[in-house]
Amino acid sequence: MSDTNCIKEIKLIPLNQDEEEKLAVQAKALAHPVRIRLLKILAAQPGCIGGDLVSTIGLAQSTVSEHLRILKEASFITTEVQRPRTCYSVNQNELKKFNSLFATSFRL
Amino acid sequence: MSDTNCIKEIKLIPLNQDEEEKLAVQAKALAHPVRIRLLKILAAQPGCIGGDLVSTIGLAQSTVSEHLRILKEASFITTEVQRPRTCYSVNQNELKKFNSLFATSFRL
DNA sequence: CCCGTGTATCGTCGATGAACGATGTATCAG
DNA sequence: CTGATACATCGTTCATCGACGATACACGGG
């Protein structure tokens, strides 16, 4: 390993502000263990009723609802209202898009 | 598309709390556009002096230093001290690990 | 029409995050 | 030894987050 990989002149990178903002916003939606758990549960089945998620997670209904709202705002889940219930489903395509945007952004 | 994908009985998922926590913690480190930008810059070259990053980002030195600390704590970058300078490098392996943990967690 | 049911939303409160300037610290040049 | 350099850390301030209970809301059943 070389003693220093440091360069003298920084190589400027094209600034794609929209993409970077989207990555950051979606990462923020993932930045909570309860939301990770919710996504994992939803990823394992075609869809879930909210109440089942509430009892599985074990937090207040309003808290779980808020986490779900954040996931939806990040496009990671979709909802289908069936009054008085709501069915939540994972948006696999958006998860895949996040994963590939991540990979291309950092040249993986 | 079926009218409802909702299931009656939720399918329980193995609870891997450590992995879920790690995903959330690392996602939190990514949850800021400046940190995304820093990672992108670092991913484009073998290493960077902190001061160059500060002038490229255009925020206060202490602010950039804090963002770099967060990225380091998440293992996304490494540092090599060369007093009085510090050379920052991306940890590509950890980025790849994040990407694959993400993919397996959500069954992509 | 009214009630029960399941969610969404609101208001609150304590905790955490983001930005900054000021200061501390370790090395090198002279 | 002294000053300059480059980064880390501290303390402060304002904004945002996370959790909760209370309440609003929209439909279906009686």
How does this structure look, described?
The structure is a homodimer of 108-residue chains. By secondary structure, chain A is an alpha+beta fold. Chain A has one domain (18-105): Winged helix-like DNA-binding domain superfamily/Winged helix DNA-binding domain (Arc Repressor Mutant, subunit A, Orthogonal Bundle). Chain A has helices spanning 17-30, 33-43, 50-57, 61-73, 92-105, and strands at residues 48-49, 77-82, 85-90. In chain A, strands 1-3-2 form a three-stranded antiparallel sheet. In chain A, helix 1 crosses helix 5 (92-105) and helix 2 packs across helix 4. The longest helix of chain A has 14 residues, at 17-30. The mean pLDDT of chain A is 94. At the A-B interface, helix 1, helix 2, strand 1, helix 3 and strand 3 of A face helix 1, helix 2, strand 1, helix 3 and strand 3 of B. Chain A binds a DNA duplex (30 and 30 nucleotides) through residues 32, 34, 49-51, 54, 59-63, 65-69, 81, 83-86.
User: Structural class of chain A, please?
Assistant: alpha+beta
Low-pLDDT regions of chain A: none
Please, what is the CATH homologous superfamily of chain A?
Winged helix-like DNA-binding domain superfamily/Winged helix DNA-binding domain
Under the CATH scheme, which class of chain A?
Answer: Mainly Alpha
Proportion of residues in extended strands of chain A:
5-15%
Instruction: Give the distance, in angstroms, between the N- and C-terminal Cα atoms of chain A.
Output: 20 Å
Overall 3D form of chain A: elongated
Side-by-side strand order of the widest sheet of chain A: 1-3-2
Largest sheet, strands/sense/barrel of chain A: 3 strands, antiparallel
Q: What is the H-and-E element order of chain A?
A: HHEHHEEH
Helix content of chain A: 55-70%
**Could you say what the CATH architecture of chain A is?**
Orthogonal Bundle
The total of beta strands of chain A comes to 3
Q: Report the CATH topology name of chain A.
A: Arc Repressor Mutant, subunit A
Which chains share the greatest interface? Answer: A-B, 53 and 53 residues
Please tell me how large the radius of gyration of chain A is. Answer: 18 Å
Let me know the average pLDDT of chain A: 94
Number of domains of chain A: 1
Question: Which oligomeric form is depicted?
Answer: homodimer
Number of helices of chain A: 5
